Q: What sequence folds into this?
């Protein structure tokens, strides 16, 4: 009997998990899984620093891009309001 991968995206559990949904919107899902897999294999976060750094950088890029997008939307809506 073969067991399913813990990151099998066809699983119903992941569809209901708000953390999984949030991470999937960032574009950093594969890096998140790499951290999880490293931790599962080594049970030592110090060994997984490369994966953690890559995931952190991806999340920071997403957050910065999102902040820029929100600032542009705010500026656009402020400019379109009559004074």
A:
């Amino acid at each position: 009997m073969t067991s399913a991968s813990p990151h099998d995206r066809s699983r119903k559990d992941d569809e209901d998990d708000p953390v999984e949904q949030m991470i999937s919107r960032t574009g950093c899902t594969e890096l998140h899984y790499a951290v999880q897999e490293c931790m599962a294999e080594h049970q030592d976060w110090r060994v997984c620093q490369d994966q953690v750094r890559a995931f952190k950088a991806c999340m920071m890029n997403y957050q910065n891009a999102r902040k820029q997008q929100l600032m542009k939307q705010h500026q656009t809506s402020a400019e379109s309001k009559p004074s």
